[in-house]
Write a structure and sequence with these properties.
Alpha-Beta Plaits; five-stranded parallel sheet; FAD/NAD(P)-binding domain; globular; 3 domains; alpha+beta; 28% helix; single chain; seven-stranded mixed sheet
């Protein structure tokens, strides 16, 4: 239990000890009476004044709740201990639980089950990260696309090739568990107190490997290159999963298959698993020079060694639609994220240092089921494929369509880049970056760019660069589950994470994975005792 003193604003170059002293002053607590530590910190560059904004945690040896009520200060609140209770059931498992997929949701589900003695079997269609890196490097160098081992599939999931952002709006106490677990396996220790923590793909890969090793050391098993090919449901109850040519009997399975496992969606649907269409978004990647973005947001302090590379979060609503920035990667690169042949798909990635020349982010436009209704749950999948294949047809290869913002706003094709050079690794073809998108998305992007330019100077600059398309913002389907977390089609099957439509990003997917593991643990006793 503790007190949280929030909204302590200091010039960005002042030491954090001053924030601790200010928290003590505001509450009237002497340093010898309490322990103080930074709980959260962020950089606020709005209104031309750059500040670090702190929340400080104070631990005192008395009734902190009563003390907070006595103070009656809006910026001081009592924070009770919110450590989740680890469940422990008593029923006996006939077979070890199965976790399908080793992205953030599957990784944390399997890690939690292994940690507490449930010896999970993990099935991952792609390869281990070492093999995955080789497959991605081969494709980016002009070689063949491995449709089972790529940016989307393999150990770590799509999150392993990203910025490694750990921000979320869910406010679940398990978020702290996720951050602490990542830090314990090699992530920077400061992620537990940053308001916008990130790891970076270079460090995140090592963290994922370390967690996989912990799963195995605690009695779990991981099978790579083992795709799910079906499930057996009898009288509404899960009996087995099919993978690698084998039937694996199980009473409980966590389906954390990721948002791009379209073939697995189809197989599960054929096996009777219930799906419904879900809203998602489509758009393009926009690139700016990171130095220009720093100048726009930090002004005269751009380049100061105590300031991180500038980042942004933009949104606009009009006509019942949203256009917003997504997966912003300071100092990052636009990456080739295909998982099917003869398609073009973009995403963003950055390393921990975020020291690349360009900043990039998705500019995404919301697409609702009414936009792609086809009488099946998979109209959104069909729309994604249509866009990705049209982009491939546009360039005749895995190169991505690319266009200067000035040309896009003027309605003309680009013939070259300007000051901002493309970072897409497979190569680009200049022309119309958004031509493969539906008309509603093109119109929303064209209307929104000048709006965002009024928010951030130079955002709609003529030489800013668009590369498209971006289609894998989230799952276009939901594997609907009940309050008990089981699929509506089968008791024992737990749809989980982004692919199931219950998460958006590394943090929320990891939390959902822990929840799925807890659902098994609250019912059954550990296998290893």
């Amino acid at each position: 239990m503790s007190l949280l003193v929030s909204n302590i604003r200091l010039p960005f170059d002042r030491p954090e000890e001053e924030a601790l002293a200010e928290a003590r002053r505001l509450t009237g607590l002497r340093s010898e009476e309490i322990q103080a530590a930074v709980y959260r910190v962020s950089v606020d560059a709005r209104r031309g004044h750059i500040a670090r904004v702190y929340t400080v945690r104070l631990d005192a040896p008395w009734d902190e709740k009563a003390f907070a009520e006595t103070l009656q200060m809006p910026f001081v609140r009592y924070k009770p201990d919110e450590k989740p209770t680890v469940p422990r059931g008593s029923k006996r498992l006939e077979h070890r639980p199965v976790v399908i997929g080793l992205g953030p949701a599957g990784l944390f589900a399997a890690y939690t089950l292994a940690k507490y003695g449930y010896a999970p079997l993990v099935l991952e269609r792609g390869g281990a990260l070492e093999e995955r890196d080789r497959a991605v490097d081969t494709f980016w160098s002009g070689g063949a696309l491995d449709t089972n081992c790529n940016i989307q599939f393999g150990e770590g999931g799509a999150g392993a090739y990203s910025d490694g952002k750990l921000t979320t709006r869910i406010g679940d106490p398990l978020c702290d568990t996720v951050l602490q677990t990542l830090a314990a396996h090699g992530a920077p220790s400061d992620i537990v107190k940053k308001a916008k923590p990130h790891v970076g793909t270079d460090i995140l890969k090592n963290v994922v490997r370390a967690m996989r090793c912990a799963i195995i050391q605690n009695g779990g098993e991981v099978r790579f290159r083992t795709a799910l090919t079906g499930v057996t449901l009898q009288n509404g109850v899960l009996r087995a999963v099919q993978a690698g040519g084998d039937a694996v009997p199980c009473e409980r399975a966590v389906a954390a298959i990721g948002h791009s496992a379209r073939d697995t969606f189809a197989v599960l649907h054929q096996n009777g698993v219930y799906f419904e269409p879900k809203a998602f978004s489509v758009g393009v990647r926009i690139e700016h020079l990171q130095s220009e973005l720093d100048r726009a947001l930090y002004g005269k302090y751009a380049g100061h060694p105590l300031l991180p590379p500038a980042e942004y979060n933009l949104s606009r609503r009009a006509g019942g639609r949203a256009c917003y920035s997504f997966c912003m990667c300071p100092g990052g690169v636009v990456v080739a994220a295909q998982s099917e042949e003869n398609t073009v798909v973009t995403n963003g990635m950055s390393y921990h240092a975020r020291n690349g020349k360009n900043a990039n982010a998705a500019l995404a436009v919301s697409a609702d089921p009414v936009d792609f209704a086809d009488g099946t749950p998979f109209g959104g999948v069909a729309l994604q494929r249509q866009i990705e294949r049209a982009a491939y047809a546009q360039t005749g290869s895995y190169r991505a369509p690319c266009q200067r913002v000035g040309d896009f706003l003027a309605g003309r094709a680009s013939v070259r880049a300007g000051e901002v050079r493309p970072s897409y690794p497979v190569g680009v073809q200049y022309g119309e970056a958004a031509a493969s998108l539906p008309a509603f998305a093109q119109a929303m992007l064209r209307d929104s760019l000048p709006y965002f330019g009024r928010k951030i100077r130079g955002f709609d600059a003529a030489d800013a660069l668009l590369t498209g398309p971006e289609t894998r913002t989230s799952s276009p389907v939901r594997m609907t589950r009940g309050d008990d977390l089981f699929s509506l089609s089968g008791a024992g099957l737990i749809p989980c994470g982004e692919g199931a439509g219950y998460a958006g990003g590394i943090m929320s997917a990891a939390v959902d994975g822990i929840r799925a593991a807890y659902r098994i643990m609250e019912e059954y006793a550990p296998v290893l005792e």
